[in-house]
Design goal:
The strands form 14 sheets. This protein has a seven-stranded mixed beta sheet with strand order 15-14-13-16-17-19-18, sandwiched between helices. Strands 35, 37, 38, 39, 40 and 42 form a six-stranded antiparallel beta sheet that branches. Strands 44-46-45-47-43-55 form a six-stranded antiparallel beta sheet. By secondary structure, it is of the alpha+beta class. Strand 16, helix 9 and strand 17 form a beta-alpha-beta unit. The longest helix has 19 residues. Helix 5 packs parallel to helix 6, helix 9 packs across helix 10 and helix 17 crosses helix 19. It is built from 25 helices and 57 strands. The chain is globular, with a radius of gyration of 33 Å.
């Protein structure tokens, strides 16, 4: 009987006996549920849905299930090993399906999911999709419709899901009626649900399938990281805009949804609005996708992300050849409108197109579009769409031997398949494409003319990336050309998304050579930091007129380490050439000389400056002699108090990586080079900087005295304690794990060990590090390595153990169970002849220990906000002249008492002008908020108890550091938190909390995890996980914006909380075109302008990424931090 009290199966007569004509016994017993009509000796007449017994020729009963003599799929097995097929069995299967979904979705912001997936849940032909408070039941054909009692199943669902308001029976397409309400009121409007916190509406009556394509849910979420940074996104066959809404929430600047049905586009617009997205960012186009792509290609349109999820083109095997041709033609058109470096997502729901065929279609289509692709991942159905392991026909990613899935009437079963590819421009067919392009650095870099950039060339109509149109040069100042090669093998890339076919473990090396007019080849300068550059020092020997600079980039064979895809392994040197045609003149046109002035700047410095906007002052002519003195501005005030020049160059610091370090231990390997460094910790820092500069050529280093050995690779088979080593540091977490695991071979998996090494700590089980309590079971004699490991695993708080050698022959070893590695009160740290093994219990403990000795880089500069001295001359009458920095956050709001409201321009310019208005009020204005439309509210007081994430607020800014700190509401541990808000950054470590705690306790748990992780700058609590991160606002993962899926983002310490603030100052007179607030172009000048002396607060230090005064708005520096992927 059902949970709701009704029958789950329809009443029936005696079972039908079916005899196998073909040997299908092994398949049935293994779990394959289908028997087709041609595998049966006969098809006895019986109503569809009759109970049937399948027997061998000898009369042995193999399976029980439902029978449909009118279908090619004549029998579906429900019970194979079970004795009875009754309501109790179906009830148990439904309960098991519900338990799986609860484990998947309880506590998750997903209320739209598949509760029952037919054969995957051992209930063949029965599908149940849940949309919030509604469920849709679908029976696949006459057999399941005559076998299951639909109203009984509906009653079971209402009883098992207390919040369920209705159960709707959805008939198959082509039926006389669309469906009927089985329980509760019929749906008279679209119903709402969420997936990953994204809100949608589904039309259960008129919508396709059960109302929505739930099987693409995780693929939609996977696409979000690629739609950030203001991307343009095209969603083909977009239906109700699933992929489009995800892209909009990720930060896409413009999203186009193409579908042939007007009704679908209206639903897409409704879903877009449901999530609070601006209508201007979304466009729906009712058009055939093939026609749309043809028109887009003619108009030379391109999108950063293109999603192509067409309907099935192969309803049966006979249609397969035509379907393959159509897919290839469609995908080629989609690839043609994908921007270079963009992401193309291709999907197929044709079950007759298996994975090898689909991969071949994608490969042929990309080649047909004369593009090159790097596969980022191939994905199928989410876990709420399970399939039997013994039934390859139901696999969404099917092997080549898999037969096509079929429904009761023989039609193909939809099976979504998604492939992600990163595309590059290419002049050859895909099969022979070297996939190498040369990207000339942008004009922000010192002395790189506008016309040398690809963007400028495309704008000028030059599509041939191997040749650049004529540019104008002069011999003096010496022009430099920075060359930035682009290729998937030139950068290390690890798989962040599910299955990834290609991982670049070590990037390829390359050489750059050049000549002028076919003369002698010269090598470009290859600096330790920054891109290669060509210094054209011989132009003064050439006659004026047209000349050609020939550039050649050679990717060196055998230098990259790539897994899985053999065709990407560089088996031979790959060469590509580029040429720049330039016109040599005696003197540059007016204005060009100023742009080229810093020609002799250090190339590494130029590389660091590449991302900075061009200085506003660079284009301004110098004041003529005898002109009136220029009023002092904020930059002058800062320049009066320059900060000392740090020892490490910004260009190197920006390439910092986390190291895993250990003192007084050595390991074998191949040495790249040797370097003289200072002794002690200063030398360890110098080693790290040198290793950073070598990029992937350096796997880590070892330092002894004043010698730094930069390692090409480590041999973790040979390692030992070594008192002469000041530090051993590894870049790669995999090297660090391999190093520890190889020393743990006698202990067992899950432990990471050091030999002959003591480690300070506390006894396991101690409640307080300051006063540890020795418990009875933390020092145990008579132990072997494996026994000690087992005991540690079973002891609360055991982070690691020490196995001390037997003091004499016949004596036993002693095991010490410990915690608080390095920070405890007992023992010492270093080589010890008394210790046999020191072993860490689990990967997290070992990685955390390695991170505690990370001496890789100097501490980052702390952004405390630039408080400049008052300079009355910088502002007209009415402004107080302080031009102080405000600490701001985008899309957040707070309560308080309004001082006044003013209208300012929209965007960053308005945020700057709003600061000027607040300055004008003096101390009466303590903060301000600005809406999307430029409505600026000046606040005379702030109510910190009423703050919330608010997409309608463009920016919220505080005039003082004290109020910024109050806004973060620090706890006793110094953690500053804001709710429902995400920050961009770089990942450190992830911890799953869903099995430990929920609700508010999850935030507390995650804060504790961050506090215990030295590298953690802040932690984001979201969707069952603690995402510990660093490089707040400047990292490349996540996005800085409101996010309902985030419980809270909590920042460790006041210094890091200050870094979380966007900085904006009131504009000095003259606005963006004025002389004040210019960004210096050299690193030294930028550092000098980043700090200021404040009489009350002393010297303050601020990162150079924040422009001052008018340059803020002009440079767009107030935008949220960069983001390219989810944590």
């Amino acid at each position: 009987m059902a949970a709701g009290g009704g029958a789950l199966l329809q009443a029936r007569g005696p079972p039908v006996h079916l005899v196998l004509a073909k040997n299908r016994v092994a398949g049935l017993r293994a779990g394959s549920p289908w028997i087709f009509a041609d595998s049966l000796a006969a098809l006895p007449p019986a109503p569809a849905g009759s109970l049937a017994l399948v027997k061998t020729k000898d009369g042995d009963i193999i399976a029980k299930g439902l029978y449909d003599p009118g279908s090619k799929l004549a029998f579906r097995a429900v019970a194979v090993k079970e004795r009875r097929l009754d309501d109790a069995l179906v009830d148990a299967r439904l309960a098991r399906a519900l338990d799986l979904r609860r484990r998947l979705f309880d506590g998750e912001p997903t209320t739209g999911y598949r509760l029952v997936n037919g054969e995957g849940d051992q209930l063949p032909g029965l599908v149940v999709d849940v949309y919030g408070g509604s469920a849709v039941l679908k029976l696949d054909g006459a057999g399941p419709a005559g076998f299951y009692d639909a109203r009984g199943v509906a009653a079971w669902l209402r009883a098992a899901l207390p919040g369920l308001e209705r159960v709707y029976l959805k008939n198959r397409s082509g039926a006389e009626s669309r469906g009927a309400a089985l329980s509760g009121p019929p749906p008279d409007a679209p119903v709402r649900f969420t997936e990953h916190g994204v809100a949608f509406e589904a039309d259960l009556v008129a919508g396709q399938k059960t109302g929505f394509f739930l099987d693409q849910r995780d693929n939609r979420h996977r696409m979000q990281p690629f739609a950030r940074r203001g991307a343009r996104v095209l969603n083909l066959f977009g239906y109700t805009g699933g992929f489009s809404v995800y892209a909009g929430l990720a930060g896409a600047a413009a999203v186009t949804t193409v579908d042939i049905a007007d009704a679908a586009l209206r639903a897409a617009d409704a879903n877009w609005a449901l999530n609070g997205l601006q209508p201007a960012r979304h466009e729906g186009v009712a058009c055939d996708a093939f026609d749309f792509l043809d028109r887009a290609a003619s108009a030379r349109e391109a999108w950063d992300v293109v999603v192509c999820d067409p309907p099935s083109f192969a309803p049966n095997k006979a249609a397969l050849p035509k379907a393959v041709s159509s897919y290839e033609r469609l995908f080629a058109k989609a690839a043609a409108v994908t921007a270079p470096g963009g992401v193309l997502a291709l999907a197929s729901c044709s079950s007759h197109v298996d994975f090898p065929a689909f991969a071949a279609i994608c490969d042929a289509a990309v080649g047909r579009a004369r593009r090159c692709a790097t596969v980022l991942g191939v994905h199928g159905q989410p876990p709420d769409h399970p399939f039997p392991a013994a039934c390859p026909e139901l696999r969404y990613l099917k092997p080549s031997r898999g037969a096509a899935a079929a429904t009761a009437d023989g039609r193909a079963r939809a099976a979504p398949l998604l492939a992600l590819a990163l595309l590059a421009a290419c002049r050859a067919a895909h099969a022979a494409c070297p996939a190498l392009t040369v990207n000339f650095f942008p004009p922000d870099t010192a002395n790189v003319p506008d016309a040398w950039t690809r963007k400028a060339q495309v704008a000028a109509g030059n599509e041939d990336t191997s040749s650049l149109n004529t540019v104008t040069l002069a011999a003096k100042p010496t022009p430099k050309l920075y060359v930035q090669p682009e290729h998937p093998l030139f950068s290390k890339r690890e798989c962040l998304l599910a299955t990834c076919l290609t991982t670049v473990a070590a990037p390829a090396g390359y050489d750059v050579t050049y000549n002028i007019d076919g003369g002698i080849d010269k090598k470009a300068t290859m600096p330790l930091a920054g891109p290669p550059y060509i210094s054209l020092t011989t132009l003064d020997t050439l006659a004026p007129g047209k000349h050609t600079l020939n550039v050649q980039v050679t990717m060196l064979k055998g230098t990259a380490e790539v897994n899985s895809v053999a065709s990407l392994q560089p088996e031979a040197d790959q060469v590509i050439t580029a040429k720049v045609v330039f016109n040599l003149v005696d003197k540059l046109p007016a204005g060009a000389a100023a742009a080229a002035a810093p020609a002799e700047a250090d190339p590494a410095a130029a590389a660091a400056d590449a991302a900075a906007p061009a200085p506003a002052a660079a284009a301004a002519p110098a004041a003529a002699a005898g002109d009136a003195p220029r009023p002092r501005n904020v930059s002058d005030a800062l320049a009066d108090n320059p900060q000392p020049e740090p020892a490490v160059d910004d260009a190197v610091v920006q390439q910092a990586v986390r190291y895993y370090c250990l003192r007084q231990y050595n390991v074998g390997g191949k040495i790249h080079s040797q370097k003289e460094v200072p002794a002690g910790d200063e030398g360890v820092t110098a080693c790290a900087v040198a290793c950073n500069a070598l990029s992937s050529a350096c796997a880590g280093f070892g330092q002894t005295g004043k010698k730094c050995f930069l390692m090409k690779e480590f041999n973790t088979n040979s390692s030992a304690a070594d008192a002469t080593m000041d530090g051993l540091c590894m870049k790669s977490a995999s090297d660090w794990l391999d190093f520890g695991a190889r020393n743990a071979q006698l202990v067992g998996s899950g432990f990471f060990c050091l030999r002959g090494y003591d480690l300070k700590g506390d006894p396991a089980g101690s409640g307080d590090a300051e006063a540890p309590v020795q418990t009875a079971n933390t020092e145990i004699a008579g132990m072997t390595p494996s026994m000690c490991a087992t005991t540690c695993k079973g002891t609360v708080g055991c982070q690691y153990y020490l196995l001390k050698k037997a003091p004499a022959a016949g004596a036993t070893s002693t095991c010490y169970l410990k915690m608080h590695a390095l920070g405890g009160l007992y023992g010492s740290t270093g080589p010890s002849t008394d210790v046999d093994l020191t072993c860490f219990n689990g990967q997290d403990a070992w990685v955390t220990f390695g991170g505690q000795l990370d001496y890789a880089l100097p501490s980052p500069e702390v952004n405390t906000g630039v408080e400049t001295p008052s300079v009355a001359a910088i502002a007209p009458v009415g402004l107080n002249g302080s031009a102080k920095a405000y600490r701001c956050i985008k899309q957040y709001n707070v309560g308080g008492a309004a001082l006044k409201k003013v209208q300012v321009p929209m965007g960053d310019e308005g945020l700057t002008q709003c600061a000027a208005k607040c300055d004008e009020e003096g101390g009466a204005c303590v903060a301000y908020s600005m809406g999307e439309t430029g409505a600026c509210t000046l606040l005379k007081s702030v109510n910190f108890n009423t703050s919330l994430a608010d997409p309608g607020t463009y920016g919220l800014c505080f005039a003082s550091a004290a109020d910024w700190n109050k806004f973060g509401n620090p706890d006793a541990g110094g953690m500053y938190c804001i709710k429902n808000y995400d920050f961009a950054g770089d990942g450190v470590r992830m911890v799953d909390y869903i099995t430990i705690t929920t609700g508010a306790g999850a935030v507390v748990f995650c804060k504790g995890q961050c506090a215990a992780e030295p590298a953690c700058q802040y932690v984001v609590t979201s969707l069952g996980k603690c995402y510990m991160k660093t490089n707040i606002l400047t990292g490349t993962f996540g996005t800085t914006r409101p996010d309902s899926a985030v419980d809270a983002s909590c920042v460790k310490g006041e210094a890091n909380w200050a870094l979380a603030a966007l900085q904006v100052a009131a504009a000095p007179p003259g606005g963006a075109a004025g002389g004040g607030g210019a960004r210096p172009s050299s690193i030294a000048a930028r550092r000098a302008s980043a700090g200021a002396s404040n009489g009350a607060a002393g010297a303050a230090r601020a990162p150079a990424r924040w422009a001052l005064a008018a340059a803020c708005a002009a440079a767009g520096l107030l935008a949220a931090g960069p983001s390219a992927g989810r944590r």
